[in-house]
Structures are given as C-alpha cells and as structure tokens.
Design brief:
Number of strands: 4
Order of helices and strands: HHHEEEE
Number of helices: 3
Helix content: 40-55%
Radius of gyration: 31 Å
Oligomer: single chain
Strand content: 15-25%
C-alpha cells in the first residue's frame, strides 16, 4: 500500500512539474500532435522561399546604398532624381514615332524611359 501511495505521489509530482514547466494549453497540445504532419509542408514553403530569394536579381549592386523606395512607371523625372540622383547618361530616342528620353544609371543597373514627362519603361541591366 505504501509503494502504491509513493508511486501515485511521484506521478502527481511529475505531472505537476510538467504543467508548471510547459504551461500546456489545448492549442499547444494540438500543435504538438499535428506538427509532424504539418512540418513537411512548412519545410517545402521555406525551401521555395529560399529558392525565390536566391534567383532574385539584386535591386542594387552589392555595397551600394540606394533608397528602398521603388521606382515605378508613371513617376516624374524629379521623383526619380530624388530617389536615384542624377543619371549617368541621358539619351534622346525615337520609338514608334514618339519622342522619348532614356536615363541610364550605370551603377544602379537601370535604364528608365520617359515619355511626356513620365516613366513608361524600366529595364534592369
């Protein structure tokens, strides 16, 4: 009888210690049971995310500092200049019978084409 009492006391003490240490909740118990099943899906998502990052072209060359604001179509020359500074080269071009201006940023690896005072094309070098 004494051994049974000690055994029950030891089990109750162990359960009490586990409760204090892990603070179990129903959500954590369910997560603990389903983690092996869902873990493989998370691993696939993470590897796909890493693959996309590895294949992405850098927005700026390594070591260069540029604004994180995105240059996008429709921007005015003053807005672009505020983000990237003065272009390395400005070229006047004629495409499809329209007068266009190309701003070339060698260090940023970008060519921006303006038509009627707005960005209409952005090329990455």
């Amino acid at each position: 009888m004494k051994i049974r009492g000690l055994l029950v006391l030891a089990v109750a003490g162990g359960v009490g210690y586990w409760v204090v240490k892990t603070h179990p909740t129903a959500g954590r118990l369910v997560d603990g049971l389903t983690r092996p099943l869902m873990g493989s899906k998370a691993a696939v998502k993470e590897s796909e995310h890493n693959r996309v990052l590895d294949e992405a072209a850098p927005a700026a060359h390594e070591g260069e500092q540029y604004s994180t604001t995105t240059v996008h179509e429709g921007m005015k020359p003053a807005e672009v200049e505020e983000l990237l500074g003065r272009p390395d080269r400005i070229e006047e071009i004629s495409e499809k019978g329209k007068r266009r201006v190309r701003w070339v940023y060698l260090s940023a690896g970008r060519d921006l084409v303006f038509e009627e005072g707005r960005v209409v094309s952005i090329a990455v070098r």
